[in-house]
Amino acid sequence: MSRTARAEISCWDGEHTFQLRIGELRLLQEKCDAGPQHIFTRLGDGTWRLDDIRETLRLGLIGAGLEQQTALDLIKRHVDTVPLLENVEAARAVILAVLVGVEDEKLGKSAPAKETDLPHSPGESSASPASTAPGS
């Protein structure tokens, strides 16, 4: 199973794809004067700065393939005009995807257990001798 830093996040007006590749990460470090782990920590402990949120989301949209102007328009509409705390968790999720990766595969239902995989219930025949004599 492979991992990628591409994350599908439900925010704003639906599902959006974010990805911070090396180029976006370098720009983010410059804008925030911090590396990804430091930004993640700040987003988690409440010591974040505006660009920790705004630039993480903007660059994440661009890294996922959105045109720069379209990404900026989304940021202006959904980040710049709302209370800042509304976007902290989304920015944190984008950074987390870079730090630990995101599963590429969708997990489905597991196959039903085979009869041979199930534990024996009491009274079922088994190769082991009974621990007590019948009827005792």
Describe the structure.
By secondary structure, the chain is α+β, with helices and mostly antiparallel strands. It has one domain. Helix content is about 45%, strand content about 10%. It has five helices and four strands. The strands form two sheets. The chain has a two-stranded antiparallel sheet. Strand 2 and strand 3 form a beta hairpin. Helix 2 runs antiparallel to helix 5, helix 3 packs antiparallel against helix 4 and helix 3 packs across helix 5. The protein is globular, with a radius of gyration of 25 Å.
The level of helicity is 40-55%
Distance between the first and last residues' Cα: 54 Å
SS field, number of helical segments: 5
Low-confidence regions: 110-126
Strand content: 5-15%
Class by alpha and beta content? alpha+beta
State the major sheet. Answer: 2 strands, antiparallel
Report the order of strands and helices. Answer: EEEHHHHHE
What is the global morphology?
Answer: globular
Q: What is the total domain count?
A: 1
Average pLDDT, all residues: 82
Rg of Cα set? 25 Å
Number of strands: 4
Strand order in space, largest sheet: 1-4
Topology:
Layout: E1 3-4, E2 6-11, E3 14-19, H1 22-32, H2 36-45, H3 50-63, H4 68-78, H5 88-100, E4 102-103
Antiparallel strand pairs: 1-4, 2-3
Helix pairs in contact: 1-3, 2-5, 3-4, 3-5
Short description:
With 136 residues, the protein is an alpha+beta fold.
